[in-house]
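U., I forgot to send this yesterday:
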Amino acid sequence: MTGTLFDGDLSADEAFVRIVKASKWFGPTKVFENIDMHVGRGKVCCVIGPSGAGKSTLLRCINSLERLDAGRIYVDGELMGFREHGEHLYELTDQQAARQRSKIGMVFQRFNLFPHMTALENIAQAPIKVLKQDRKEVLQRSRDLLARVGLADKEKAYPAHLSGGQQQRVAIARALALQPKLMLFDEPTSALDPELVGEVLEVMKKLADEGITMIVVTHEMGFARDVADDVVFMDGGAVVEQGHPRDLLENPSEPRTQRFLGSVLGRA
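Result:
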């Protein structure tokens, strides 16, 4: 089963993120095919499913880190990775794609902080060096972001002196420093020790409460149930099922979804 994810009565024209018949292949290997998905402004969409389902690659395509082989992705009405001219599509230059990417924050499984920079410097680096913003203003905003993720006292700390959960919270602050219109999270807690997962999820919950549009690839079913407006279950490069978290997680209609949730939630 494939289909289109609507947030309530959301129409295609109202969607903040609109994915239309998107397909991606790596050589002869299909990653995903004919994906349709709509996410409303200020909403949280959680994407769940087994490893190899195409979830992370879909996020990378939204952010133009990977190029689609077919279909289109729009964020806030802007076509990602390509420009349209008549009926033809032309791939953006690296510089044009980087400009689009700067409007989307992405948090990865691994924190990817610069080890030789403090937490504050990691957050301020891109706005100062890439966007050429005023250093004094960026540093103050970066301090505010550290406070926002509960790390106001860690601005001079280097990554090696931070726990995994703290590093991931710095990575979230770094993504927010570019003042993105969309946040993408690719299994942001999968590399963390279990006792550190909660602190990162708590920051993400606060972002959701603030109305930031988020797409989250996650194995944290509790987060999906409590925070998401919509949940998408992917398997085999396709959207198998999608809907409100209470419906999909507690009473899935597709046998494949039932088997997956039975496995991860320990249901009989």
